[in-house]
Amino acid sequence: MTVDIAARGPATVAALSGEVDLECSPAVRRALLDALRDGRPVIVDLSLVSYIDSSGIASLVEAYQAARKQGTALMLAAVSPAALRVMQLARLDRVFNIRPTVDDALAVLAQ
Amino acid sequence: MPPPTMDDTAAATGHHADMSQSDRPDTLPGDLVTSDREVFANHMALIASMTREFSSSRDSQAVSRHGLERITTFLGAEASSLFLLSDDGRDLYCAACFGPVDVTGMRVPLGQGIVGRAVKRNKTQMVRDARHDPDFGGQDIAEETGFVTRSVLVAPLSLGSERLGAIEIINKAGGDGLFDEHDQTLLEVLAGSAALAIDNFRLTQRLVEQERARHELALAAEIQRSLLPRPTEDAYPVHGINAAARLVSGDFFDIVDCGEEGGRPGTGRIWFAIGDVSGKGMNAAILMTKTASLFRCLCKTVDNPGRLLASINAELCETGSHGMFVTMIAGYLDRETGNVVLANAGHEPPLIVPADGGAMDAVPAEAPPLGIASDIVGPEGYPEHPLHLGDGSLYVFTDGLTEAYTAAEGDAVLGTEGARRLIRRVAALPAADRLREILARVTVPGRPLRDDVTVLLVQGSAAP
What we know:
Chain A: InterPro entries: Anti-sigma_ant, STAS_dom, STAS_dom_sf. Chain A: This is Anti-sigma factor antagonist. Chain A: Pfam families: STAS (PF01740). Chain A: Residues 1-109 form the STAS domain. The structure holds two protein chains of two kinds. By secondary structure, chain A is of the alpha/beta class. Chain A has a single domain (2-110), classed as Transcription Regulator spoIIAA (2-Layer Sandwich), CATH 3.30.750.24. Chain A has helices spanning 25-36, 54-70, 81-89, 102-110; strands spanning 2-8, 11-20, 42-52, 74-77, 97-99. In chain A, strands 1-2-3-4-5 form a five-stranded mixed beta sheet, sandwiched between helices. In chain A, helix 1 packs parallel to helix 2 (54-70). The termini of chain A are far apart. Chain B folds into two domains: 6-205, 2-Layer Sandwich (Beta-Lactamase); 217-459, PPM-type phosphatase domain (Phosphatase 2c, domain 1), CATH 3.60.40. In chain B, a hairpin with a 5-residue loop joins strand 16 and strand 17. Chain B contains eleven helices and 18 strands. In chain B, helix 2 runs parallel beside helix 6 (181-227) and helix 7 packs across helix 8 (305-318).
């Protein structure tokens, strides 16, 4: 599992890849909370996530809660089929702002 | 006056070191030590005896105090102290000392003072007059106590690249009042075996702590198991089973019978709930216990499963738990009509299994899990599903079942389809046996479960 953080336009893009499970979810959590710290919108690119378990989802939820509390936008983008299935089953698609691509998420921010 | 021997020292301090025939007495150096050979032999005797003492004792404090006293006496010095690196590695603290001034507990930032310098550079420091050393930090002690530091010898304690601390010896008495290369070599050798002894103590301590934690975890697991409802008779309409992947579980189920008669609306209902906390381990187990307690309390006063889940959600959201959330189904069976009403908060879809072996229906979640946001559902609560079971059954389970490895499926993950096949395969058994059989089929002998497994079975009528 890796987390790549990059600035794109007005946002910070955090790209997760590989298996996001109990072992690496603390690293995901830290990376996302760090990314939120400067107040810029955060887009989490999930296109390369092959597996995500409930502790991985919990890291995304914590980032969602932190973003909401500080009034910063947090979007999930290009969610891989494996991750999307988990989110739809638990109806987390009603919680997160999910965009089809990172570009689409950036376009929403630009509006 | 004759120099004190090792026996004198032991007698004076109340300590006694086991000595073999080959042990030689410690002697003060100086005029009485006439040759290098004798110095060497005395050093070896002290090293052998102290190494034995370090390796055989289980009381680190006593060993360090007694050890410092012996080294100080042997080197003919006035005082000594053992400094250890704090857990965060930022400073050194005095763990034990010997001499006229007690500096136990004193802290020195790493890199400061002569001791801090020795540790930072991982190199022995021999200082002729500390008062002229730019790093010397003992002026306060001199002002407060009148104890003046002159010559200093500090050997670092380390194991490979790991720094543990240092031993400091102060004020060589007699002769020119300066430490020499013999003293340095001796202290370095003793520091080597002291470092091993300290490492040993720490490992032992860690083992003891681990053992204590394991014991506490076992107690927690026992309490958690006692919160689960007792197995019910086969004729009873609701059954449940739970197996934890670790000692404690992040899953739970509960069955609360509100009685067959009575004036209060809702009597005759059997409430049931199943939940799965995100993550594993103690934090999940604690949140699970909180959620289960809320359910047990609320189902006795709240009439609708949707509102009940909304109340639990509000409670969980009030005290956030690092993004942890709970997928949960709560509902009740009306034992007179055989009707079930349930609400599903982000949980694995339960299956309605007709008695005639017809197609199964799933009840997917229409709202997200609990504990994420308090405004996720409106005042009417989570959406409710009325189900008429007739002679059929309802199977509610956690994803520990669908994600379990199963030997019968060629060691593959069971999956949703596998779970349906398994449920059909056990259909002819009495209720409690069905759950036991399901659990047995997803348990691979000698291999821990991948995740906690919980299955709840609700029967429309008591007949199997």
